[in-house]
Write a sequence for this structure.
């Protein structure tokens, strides 16, 4: 294995092209502005194992004079390859599709240490869709400053890998997107500083494909300009993901948002209970900390120890017949079959489930006919047997199955939404794909608050075949002509 020393863009490109697998390239410290191109592309392409290091100081690569196609460094590797970056700067990477990255990575392993990312559409975009080529991505001791783009949902780090580790980094002032977005099989976010600053970032950590998640030892600050009021999101909808073990421990999480009653630490839409322990929370409403199943202990809020019995899990085996939820933060498991006689005996309730307070989850079930939620903030999801869903006051987020006929009483004024992830294929990429190529919201009927959610069963293209999958009925008396749009709906 050889070592190359370079001091210009030309000599770097020559070394990358002519190096062997496992070689090391030492770059003289300084600023390098990308101007050259190969086959009309300005990206520096790497297709084999390689280490690129600043030689005694940081070597900064700027793409401020060109538009890149994918990344300043574009890695297209085999499963056995490994690329390492150490003491390298990646600055001002922008593409016409708004997902230009400091590093674009596909295949094999990627390790980044002691490096700096600033003013790019994305810092690292690593999406290896071919599972047979997928490796690990590890990012340590680096800084990510003002990544993202105001016209889209770009992120500081967006990674699909086998194992994704983010450790001892400073990630701050992200624009619109998430600090850390993972659709990896397993994710570790440990001992970092994640600070919104004056940025408009969304989640601090967003996990979309389930798997094991460890969030430990971080200091996280939600700023006053945040685009999302939640700190963490955990789902298992992308890339055939399955829920894993969720551990959130030993973090210091500070909410500076002026509306603490709307802020949450966690949104968990799976049936895996998050283990939340030894954290310090500041600036949240105690009743709004967690959405979804969880078990917590030894956590403090504004210096006060939280009640260790405050749990979000109810054993579904103890539930029969029609269910009434009378306390906050409960989860109900799969519903048993319910007969018409059972329903008629419970005249106080509209249907199979009646959710009386906050943070209710109802996954699965095939016997339910109608879900009704009352006051409070409720999360209702994965109900393949439900034909009707009725919301009420509070913020209700619902994720319908394909055979759900109607969703009633939705109010975007108070933050209600429908998670469209159930209708979007794995191939949907929010960075490049237009949502209205897949899903459209069409006003129907004579009222101002009646809509159809339509899905294009053929996907994007010139010819669309939109089929109605669910009817949406807004709260009576509210006019949605200007408010009931996709901007008021979640799609993750």
């Amino acid at each position: 294995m050889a070592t190359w020393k370079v001091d210009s863009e030309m000599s770097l490109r020559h070394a990358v092209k002519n190096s062997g697998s496992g070689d090391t390239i030492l770059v003289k410290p300084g600023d390098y502005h990308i101007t050259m191109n190969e086959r009309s592309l300005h990206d520096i392409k790497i297709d084999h194992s390689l280490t690129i290091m600043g030689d005694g100081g940081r070597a900064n690569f700027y793409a401020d004079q060109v538009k890149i196609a994918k990344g300043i460094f574009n890695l297209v590797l085999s499963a056995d390859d490994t690329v390492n970056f150490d003491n390298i700067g990646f600055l001002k990477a922008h593409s016409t599709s708004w997902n230009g990255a400091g590093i674009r990575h596909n295949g094999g392993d990627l390790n980044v240490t002691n490096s700096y990312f600033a003013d790019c559409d994305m810092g690292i975009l690593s999406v290896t869709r071919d599972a047979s080529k997928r490796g690990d991505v590890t990012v340590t001791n680096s800084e990510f400053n003002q990544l993202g783009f105001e016209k889209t949902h770009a992120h500081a780090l967006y990674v699909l890998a086998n194992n994704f580790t983010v450790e001892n980094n400073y990630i701050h002032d992200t624009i619109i997107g998430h600090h850390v977005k993972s659709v990896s099989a397993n994710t570790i976010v440990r001992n970092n500083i994640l600070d919104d600053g004056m940025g408009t970032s969304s989640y601090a950590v967003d996990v979309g494909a389930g798997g094991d998640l460890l969030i430990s030892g971080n200091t996280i600050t939600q700023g006053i300009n945040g685009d999302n009021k939640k700190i963490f999101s955990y789902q298992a909808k992308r890339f055939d993901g399955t829920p894993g073990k969720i551990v959130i421990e030993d973090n210091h999480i500070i909410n500076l948002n002026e509306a603490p009653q709307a802020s949450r630490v966690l949104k968990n839409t799976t049936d895996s209970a998050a283990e939340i322990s030894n954290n310090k929370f500041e600036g949240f409403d105690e009743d709004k900390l967690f959405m979804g199943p969880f078990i917590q202990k030894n956590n403090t809020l504004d210096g006060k120890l939280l009640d260790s019995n405050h749990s979000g899990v109810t054993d579904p085996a103890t539930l029969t017949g029609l269910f009434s939820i009378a306390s906050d933060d409960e989860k109900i498991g799969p519903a048993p079959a319910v007969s018409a006689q059972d329903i008629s005996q419970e005249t106080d309730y509209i249907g199979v489930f009646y959710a009386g307070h906050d943070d209710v989850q109802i996954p699965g079930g095939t016997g339910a006919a109608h879900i009704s939620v009352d006051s409070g903030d409720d999360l209702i999801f994965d109900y393949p047997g439900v034909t009707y869903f009725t919301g009420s006051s509070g913020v209700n987020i619902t994720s319908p199955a394909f055979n759900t006929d109607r969703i009633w009483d939705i109010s975007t004024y108070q933050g209600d939404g429908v998670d469209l992830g159930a209708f979007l294929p794995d191939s949907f990429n929010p960075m490049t794909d237009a949502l209205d190529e897949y899903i459209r919201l069409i006003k129907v009927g004579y009222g101002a608050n009646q809509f159809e959610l339509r899905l294009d069963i053929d996907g994007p293209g010139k010819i669309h075949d939109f089929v109605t999958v669910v009817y949406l009925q807004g709260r009576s008396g509210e006019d949605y002509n200007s408010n009931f749009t996709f901007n008021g709906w979640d799609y993750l």
